[in-house]
Amino acid sequence: MPKRRYIAEYFRRSWMLFALLIIIILPFAIGASLLYKSWPIVSAPGLFGDVLFGSDWMPMQGKFGLWPFIVNSIIITLTGLVLMIPVCLAAAIYITQFAPLWVKRMLRTVIDILAGIPSVIFGLWGIITIVPLISEWATGAGAENATGYSVFAAGVVIAVATIPFVLNMLIELFEAVSMELMEIGLSMGASKWQTIRDIIIKKIKHGIIASFTLGVSKAFGETIAVLMVVGNIVQIPKSVFDAGYPLPALLANNYGEMMSIPKYDSALMLSALILLIIVILFNYFAHKVIGHYHLKSS
After folding, report:
1. Closest CA to 166 of 115, 209, 211
2. pLDDT tens-digit profile of 163-200?
3. pTM score
4. Predicted pLDDT of residue 293
5. What angle do CA 280, 285, 286 make, to 5 degrees?
6. Distance of alpha carbon 202 from its chain centroid, rounded?
7. Cα→Cα distances 128→115, 123, 196, Å
8. Selection from 35, 22, 25, 23 nearest residue 276 by Cα
9. Using an 8 Å Cβ cutoff, are 67 and 48 in contact?
10. 229: which of 52, 153, 194, 267 fits an S-S bond (Cβ 3.0–4.6 Å)?
């Protein structure tokens, strides 16, 4: 009997270790396969001048400048982040600190429903609601592109699509804070808002940073919702009302049409590799920031 238990235990531990190895190897395997497929254009002359920092995207002429797509991805993600942060923080504080219990339950249900809505629905909502609104603003502002299909529309849609994801993490963070912190703050004569601002938020700020970091990573990869409202024009936008063309939209729109053009496949795989590297670097530096705050708070 002990031998059978030992064998069963050994099998369970081996299976868990195997599952862990898959998780560890998976990002390297994805990166290696993308690098292998993009190697023809990576190893060719002019990688930095013509491809990474090049602005000419003309596959039929063998020009694969990816710089406009990279810039558009960064602008759209930062726009979504700027719109998302105040909404998520305010909503998480209200739900966890001020809302009555029945309101809190109702809002949690609404957030869970929003988190389960497919990306394409947010894209359609962006077309019928956000794009016309931005078109009116752009017309009033005298913008050159008054269609509403713009990097700003993409940023709004990304923010809306990412808010439920980030908000759920923030609510878990605020709820995990001990009530003792609130009682300590109130006993020292601070108001409830002062206690939240000066004690609770400072206590969990590394978790807040981590939540928004994961939200940005998700925003970088949003594809369908973005390509439906961004306009898909290869250019570096001069204003938020201009159309753009981020990396995920490039992949979604063009993959499958590149087999007859030399290096087209490699250029698209390189754009996917760049997207992967940006997300990994962003997460790496965010973890460094979180580690810094951990050291300061310990």
Report:
1. 211
2. 998 998 888 888 887 677 777 777 887 788 888 888 88
3. 0.83
4. 59
5. 95
6. 24
7. 20, 9, 38
8. 35
9. no
10. 153
